[in-house]
Structure of DedA family protein:
Amino acid sequence: MIPELESVVGALPTESTQQAVGYPTLFLLVALGSLVPVIPTGALVSSAAVVALHQSSPFSLLFVFLVASGAAFLGDVCLYWLGQRGVRSNHGSKWLEALTRRAAPERLAQAQEKLEEHGGTVLILSRLVPAGRIPVMLACLLGKMPLKTFARGDVPACLAWAATYQLIGILGGSLFPEPWQGVVAAVALTVVISGAPAVWRRLRARFGHGTG
């Protein structure tokens, strides 16, 4: 049995190989998830943090943080630039239409109000609140915020977002001896965090309608 286990372990990719493949993959998926908001990027960052926690390199967690925040920033800026093209165009664009479809009217109204009150600092909160990024981005687009202004506000937003989800991964990974157990815990936690606001809105709407 022991020789079989040793052969399996020997067949696994080395830590350096995992990093060489993992960091570019993480960057690509987070950037793509920021551009096309269907990929659970928070869960990706938390999972990568769990894996990095169990690696021997002291800089693994730092690399995950830099890769995730950089990819999120790139995706946000590209999406905002594409949205700006739609705002300037007389016929709009598919990107602007997609953003509009994903932003509920009441969430957009709240985002526009917060943007007027707090300016670009609202971008930080939008990245940390589940489903808050798109309404705030759309509010910035409709408010004709310049790309440079948006980018300046998005830098600390992406840094705070990456740090938050990395912390979730670290907490999940530190509770379990095996990396895969920490990954499962981190993904489950991020799914709960991401889905809680939607569940709360549905319950409030149902009970509110029932009492009305």
